[in-house]
Amino acid sequence: MTKIIYVDPRNAAQTVDLADGTSLMQGALASGVDGIVAECGGNAMCATCHVYIEPERMADLPLMSEEENALLEGVAAPRKSNSRLSCQVKAHVGLEGMTIYVAPAQ
To answer: CA-CA distance, 106 to 100, in Å (whole number)?
Structure first.
């Protein structure tokens, strides 16, 4: 299990244990984290699971796909250098203690 800290748009933090291989989106939905809509169910088609990764941990993530990059161009909240779609990031031991900030609009 990997501990991930989610911070919702109201700045409420919630620590969640995720099984390795679980997407950050799935973990947020299963734990009732506010702000993740996930209209497409995690199929990288809607960009309604936009999050900001703590900048110093970006190197711990795999590179984003061209599809994810294109979807992030149309997100409702401002795209930042640490923007990711939570459906495209899977939990693993290297992410232990990472803080994920849910974008204020989806």
So the answer is: 15
| DSSP-derived secondary structure for 19-63 | -TT-BHHHHHHHHT-TT---TTSSSSSS--SEEEE-GGGGGGSPP
Domain containing residue 42: CATH number? 3.10.20.30
What does the alpha-carbon distance between residue 17 and residue 35 come to, in Å, rounded to a whole number?
19
Are 25 and 86 spatial neighbours (Cβ–Cβ below 8 Å)?
yes
User: What is the domain extent for residue 21?
Assistant: 2-102
Q: What is the identity of the amino acid at 35?
A: G
0.85 surpassed by pTM: yes
Q: What is the pLDDT along the chain (106 residues), one digit of tens a residue?
A: 999 999 999 999 999 999 999 999 999 999 999 999 999 999 999 999 999 999 999 999 999 999 999 999 999 999 999 999 999 999 999 999 999 999 999 9
